[in-house]
Design brief:
The chain is mostly helical. It has 12 helices and no strands.
Length: 293
């Protein structure tokens, strides 16, 4: 029987900054459009967090029953370590998805944007389909694409839209940036798991690219995400404060390229999550300062 602390670890708190980051950026973009709505922002954050927790438990369940986590190096998995029954972890996943849909529905009612219900359903289906079902797309190397779309574009632009009723160029740039960093987080996780994923038939993008190219793609994604703010600099010079994040990227980038032991890549997950949070804070600050100047 898993303890409360183990259930919390199973929710993988280190991945939660990836859920908060797009909401912060999307809210700052709404502020820049003079349409900041605090309640809408809080609801969007709750939806994002619950979806992230739900997908973490869903992955724990699906990978666990498939045997993918039998020889896992990394964060605790409840099913793979036999600390919790698969059915209980599955219920936890759907409980988180259910709560996310409740808060999402409240947001839809407030904004009267009923078409967003379809977006919400798509988010839940994508969250479950990553490793769940008969043909999980995470096992086909498409997980990175869905992470970019849903934890980058949809989460950021959706947050902006539910407050401003429109999106803007800064919202798009921020969405692409945070989406790429979220993909980098996934890549760090999957590079570490290449041996076990290959043995289990899980063809992630890291497996398809091969160890060296997968490591290099991590560095490329971080670089593009951070340097992309230069596009906004001519009219919003405060956005260049995002470049202050470059030193924080050096250590995880070095570890990804040079860390050959699987355990040496574990700290990269936390560091990349913090990079995403730092990116969202600096990006948002840059937008707010640009709006006020």
């Amino acid at each position: 029987m898993a303890t409360a602390a183990q259930w919390i670890k199973g929710a993988r708190p280190r991945t939660l900054p990836a859920a908060i980051a797009p909401v912060l950026i999307g809210t700052a973009a709404a502020y820049e459009l003079h349409a900041f709505r605090p309640l809408n922002a809080v609801l969007a954050a709750l939806v994002a967090l619950l979806l992230q927790i739900g997908v973490n438990y869903a992955n724990d369940y699906s990978d666990g029953i498939r045997g993918t986590d039998e020889d896992r190096v990394g964060p605790l998995r409840l099913v793979g370590s036999r600390l919790a029954k698969p059915e209980d972890v599955k219920r936890a996943a759907f409980g988180a998805f259910g709560l996310a849909m409740v808060f999402g529905l409240i947001l839809v009612i407030i904004t009267q944007s009923w078409w967003l219900i379809l977006v919400g359903l798509g988010c839940v289906l994508a969250a479950w389909g990553y490793t769940g079902g008969k043909n999980p797309y995470g096992y086909m190397g498409l997980g990175d694409v869905f992470v970019f779309v849903f934890f980058g574009l949809v989460a950021t632009l959706g947050t902006t839209y539910t407050q401003a009723g429109q999106v803007s160029l800064p919202a798009w740039i921020g969405a692409i940036g945070t989406g790429l960093i979220a993909c980098a987080l996934l890549m760090a996780n999957n590079v570490r798991d290449i041996p076990t994923d290959t043995a289990a038939g899980k063809r992630t993008l890291a497996v398809r690219l091969g160890d060296q190219h997968a490591r290099e793609s991590y560095v490329l994604m971080l670089a593009v995400a951070i340097l992309l703010v230069i596009v906004l600099a001519p009219t919003k010079p405060w956005m260049l404060i995002v470049l202050l994040l470059i030193p924080a990227c050096l250590m995880p980038a070095w570890l990804m390229v040079n860390g050959r032991k699987r355990k040496s890549l574990i700290p990269v997950l936390k560091q990349t999550g913090l990079i995403n949070l730092g990116y969202s804070l600096l990006f948002s600050l840059g937008l707010v300062l640009s709006t006020g100047s």
